[in-house]
Amino acid sequence: WVQHLPPRQEACEFTPRINGDRAYEPVACGDMILVACEHNSALLALDIQTGEERWRFYANAPLRVAPVVADRRIFLGGEDGVLYCLDTAGKLQWQFRGGPSDRKLLGHERLISVWPVSLRPVARDGKVFFLAGYWPTEGVFIHGIDAATGSRLWTHDSSQFRPAGGMSIIDDLLHVGGLRGGI
């Protein structure tokens, strides 16, 4: 099967050093493929055998990073600055705002959070970790969240870097990619 989706509209098409959203990043989830879309702010769940849409979930802003699947939960962050937890049927379980307020700005021709989820979350051992923010002058917030309840375990808010690349867990340490001094 083939699924035809609109071409991606890059967030930073005129900035060659930021090119993380040029292509869709499908993610396997059981017998489904998940695709985050920036054009309509939807997470699509497609049947892995037929390509037919099973369900879709709408965020309140573009979805530029792929979701993460762990322990029968889907973790998804968008430019609305919110981390969403869905079950595998697409039902919202909880959500957590990553920035200190609901403040918005015009970004990529749409209203987005001043603190968008700009890197793909990571999950491990019943916890999910995500980053909200893009520019150090506005603040970058890294959160550890209980994956089952959505309760904050900790927040680090004194980082002075521009998030880039990705997040990973290596030897029980959370690694966050970024650029010092902006772009």
Keyphrases for this structure?
183 residues, mainly beta, four-stranded antiparallel β-sheet, 46% strand
Outline the structure in words.
This protein is mainly β and 183 residues long. It is 0% helix and 46% strand. It is built from no helices and 16 strands. The strands form five sheets. A four-stranded antiparallel beta sheet has the order 1-2-3-4, with no helix packed on it. The chain has a four-stranded antiparallel beta sheet with strand order 5-6-7-8, with no helix packed on it. Strand 1 (27-29) and strand 2 form a beta hairpin. It is globular, with a radius of gyration of 16 Å. The model is unreliable at 14-19 (pLDDT under 50).
- Taking the alpha carbons of the first and last residues, their distance comes to 40 Å
What's the overall average pLDDT, rounded?
Answer: 90
Q: Estimate what percentage of residues fall within beta strands.
A: over 45%
In total, the number of strands is: 16
Which consecutive residue ranges, at least 5 long each, have pLDDT under 50? 14-19
Q: Determine the number of helices (DSSP H or I, runs of at least 4 residues).
A: 0
Given helix and strand content, the structural type is: mainly beta
Query: Biggest sheet, open or closed, and with what strands and sense?
Result: 4 strands, antiparallel
Helical coverage, percent range: under 10%
Given the C-alpha coordinates, what overall shape results?
globular
**Taking strands numbered 1, 2, ... along the chain, how are they ordered across the largest sheet?**
1-2-3-4
Radius of gyration: 16 Å
Write the element-wise H/E pattern from the N-terminal end onward. Answer: EEEEEEEEEEEEEEEE
